[in-house]
Amino acid sequence: MAEENIVYGHLGMVEKDPWLLPDEAELMDRYDLYRQRLAEIEAGSGSIVDFANGYKYYGFNYSYEDKGWWFREWLPAAREVYLFGDFNDWNKKEILLERTYNGNWEVFFPDSEFGNRLVHGSEVKLLVNGCDGSWLERIPSYIRRAVEDPATHNYNGQLWAPEKEFDWTGDSFDIRTVGSLLIYECHMGMAQEEAKVGTYNEFTEKILPRIKEEGYNAIQLMAIAEHPYYGSFGYHVSNFFAPSSRFGTPEELKNLIKTAHCMGIAVIMDIVHSHFVKNINEGLNKFDGSDIYSPPKEKGDHPHWDSKLFDYSKGQVQHFLLSNIKYWMEEFHFDGFRFDGVTSMIYNHHGYTEFDDRKKFFDDTVNRDGLLYLTLANKLIHSIKPEAVTIAEDVSGMPGMCFTIEDGGVGFDYRLGMAIADFWIKLLKDQHDENWDIWDMWNIMTNRLPYVKTIAYCESHDQALVGDKTLAFRLMDKDMYFNMNRASKSIVVDRGIALHKMIRLFTISLGGQAYLNFMGNEFGHPEWIDFPRAGNKWSYNHARRQWSLADNGFLRYSYLAEFDKAMVALVKKYNVLGSGYGWNLQMDEKNQTIVFSHNDLLFVFNWSPTNSIPDYATEVRYPGRYRIILSTDEKRFGGADRLDKKARFFTYPHTFPDGTVKNYMQIYNVNRCATVYKKLAK
Description:
There is one protein chain. By secondary structure, the chain is an alpha+beta fold. Helix content is 26%, strand content 23%. It has an eight-stranded parallel beta barrel, surrounded by four helices. It has an eight-stranded antiparallel beta sheet with strand order 25-26-27-32-29-30-31-28. Strands 5, 8, 9, 10 and 11 form a five-stranded antiparallel beta sheet that branches. A hairpin with a 2-residue loop joins β26 and β27 (601-606). It is globular, with a radius of gyration of 27 Å. The two termini are 53 Å apart. The mean pLDDT is 95.
């Protein structure tokens, strides 16, 4: 176990952030809880990596020594347990499992008797006589594939054991080689233009090359673990070890990941350990007739998500979830995880409060066991693969989330900058352009601790869902349906396109050390996401991505797509995300102009809807000669092309009365435009 970083009697995180000093006792208690649990794990299993081998014991595992399949399940409160399936003509009470120890049940299927019956693809189920007297058919908790019966829509487990294992030869990908993360958030099923459920293979063939061309170096895959209701966006998981069969086979997912790696693209999984589906026919709820995985009675219900909560205080729940993490890393070579619903996991109120008082981070509303589990998860992930990336979706700003475990933190590598997206929505909803406060804009982008790595984004899948609006839709509304032709005239669309580009460039250049975009949003996808449901007559029309809008060249969507590509290329080429905070040079409230620099790049944002100023004097950090390398006003991006990219700009010194000397440069400061200048070599 790594030694803690305690400096002069204080936790390392407190030394780095003295704001935490009044609550160090609580932080130390949390850290002690982690150390105690980790010591127990290491005493019993040798290491946390070995502790997370549940998937190698439970479910189906073949024994070459015994020549047959072992099947095991943890059902401590069950009275009787049977396994049945197509291999025994669905005879429910023929094969009784034996209770062994610690609530485990098992049965052995020798090849001599079952070798030709229990085979790859066999469909299976459990029949469990629960402690509450119920007899319920269940899908094994560690099953690696679950398939839906097209006639009944019921799910069965499936023994998945292809004769030939997937060939990972040559997959030595290291996420550190991609540099600053530029994440493309994806959903397999809705990634195709055709109104249907897309597949792993289609994504590999059609979408990965598009992502590569656009310059993104990481994908974040949503809805991977099996979920019975497609419309849950993958957030009501039923089978945690089963890649969703609606998109294809596990081997096809592995091929997607290997192909991405070959293209230099990291693959991050959107993992849902914050809750699970309520369903009894699928999932973990009342698995042995008791609240086996969740807190008892109504405490086990998420009050807002119509789902069940995990009880992170239970050792076997920790074992299940940690084994799930190791399974995805070892079997599928995921490069990291974005943990969904972290706020719900770490507070008993699940985040439904205003975080307006520091006490709320340290009082008894905090779920210590949830924090403990997340710390153990980060310990495991970085023990298996030190370079792996972990991302916390936490809206509360819990202190310590991105401090190392050795410093007393939870150990995440990144936090999502969720306040940024909320800010843009509120700004567009509540204020006219001429009233935008540039200090508010600057502060929301830079209000982060330097040692807490943040993933900035303007909008994610959340803003694209039906009931909400994307930035493009908030900016252009119905005009997106009638005035996106390049020949059409619309001041609404002109404004929308201009601000869409500026908002993105402002966010990526100031908001954090990494950047995220949801697929299609880069070109202002006009449709909201609405999965098939009774209310829309089970239509797939809004559960797809219309790539042709950006590809056909006749519509203005292509301007936004082209700009996004140029923007991503710029931040990669000049390491903007890795260069720290922007250096604030000028805040001109009258003309709503913000000027800042990253190294030898100068960024000028004129948010004014009307004020274009010739011979505008702006401070520069370094004297010399400059040229324009990117402007949102370029014709190729749908702009008015008011700036001359061939022009060269020379700085001049100005001495102030107090003797201070600063360097300035005169430019044409165009309204509703962002321009990036680069200092030229001598």
